[in-house]
Amino acid sequence: MLIALIARDKAGALQTRKDNRADHLAYIEATGVVAQAGPLIVDGEMAGSLVILNVDSMDAAQEWANNDPYAKAGLFSGVELIEWKKVIG
Q1: Architecture in CATH of 2-84
Q2: Please, are residues 7 and 89 in contact by the beta-carbon 8 Å criterion?
Q3: pLDDT score for 54
Q4: pLDDT tens, 25-52?
Q5: What residues contact 3, with CB distance under 8 A and at least 6 apart?
Q6: Contact between 47 and 77 (Cβ < 8 Å)
Q7: How many other C-beta atoms are found inside a 10 Å radius of the C-beta of residue 9?
């Protein structure tokens, strides 16, 4: 199943994002369940994340989200997981 992870960064947390980016990208590569991903941009700066996970269950998506280095670093003010259906692309 495809799950959209939508996370918004805490205000003023750009340096936290930058400091943990390499670990976040390594986690994406190591887990092998990310179909698409990229930062949300506000006023030209990274301010959150959109990650499309291809996992077996919502529980697996939540586990992935909980173990993301960004989440462990306290970057996000909130994370939403929503089942998603690919229609185009």
Answers
A1: 2-Layer Sandwich (3.30)
A2: no
A3: 98
A4: 999 999 999 999 999 999 999 999 999 9
A5: 52, 53, 55, 58, 61, 81, 82, 83, 84
A6: no
A7: 22
